[in-house]
Input
Amino acid sequence: MMDVDTVNEVIECVGRLFDHIPYAVCGTAALIYYGYRSYFPDHISITCPEESKEAIRCWALAKGMTPLPDNPDGFSVRVASGRTCPVCIKFMKNGFEALERVRVGPGQASMVTLPSIANTIARSYVSRLHNSSTERQALYARYLAWILKRMAEVPPTDPIQRFTPERAKDIINRSFWIPFTLSYPETVPLFTAAGLEIQGDGGLMDWPQIDVPSVPAQRPRARTSTSRYSLNNSHGRSQSHNFANTYNYNYSQSQTRHSLHDSDLSESSTSTKEIAINSFP
Output
């Protein structure tokens, strides 16, 4: 696993390498940059338009990066400690232009925004709603709850990191909103704090006119408040901190035993309307 300093060093290197090629850091590495500390990745994921994938790989190798023996769509970055860290290239067949990104850090790396990550998790949740375990659904909820709390801390001077109807298209889709908020009603105030306008009945002020559900409408799984996977359980509990005007702060938390696969948090060739889900690492 990579610690915070290593993740940030690789992100900075990626920023300096590809300042002329469209891409975005995504997945767990993006969450680490924004401050998540309950799980650490063993690789960095970046996403790009399909036509940029080969250009990124070839440019990295031309600049002295080494190929990954078990992944042709990637390369390794050597950091100051001498360790080599894998970077995996995902690609989007369409929709990359609509993916909101910001430039971050000294390397001015391109990074997906918090709302973009939240929408990706929403799609992952919907696509596996009826064939995943209660524990896995709770992991989606914990990741999303942390992101919502982080969004609530963003200063008004940085509105791209907060929800608007346009930045929450998968969140405000009924196929996500209804089963998720019925299962995790404690998250509703967090959505409000992150920028959504929610009515007294728990519905949204900005329902889309037509929703295209990702899965057939079915009754969501019941989840009692005493479930050991409740968001109120100490395992994997999200924490709120005051981080002033910076996203990249220093603190540590213990690592949880389980995590979603990086593809649950990353845009790739199976998105933008559908996300690939893999088993726990």
About this structure: The chain has a mean pLDDT of 80. The chain has two domains: 4-112, 130-242. The beta strands are 24-26, 44-49, 66-68, 71-78, 84-92, 101-104, 109-112. The chain has seven helices and seven strands.
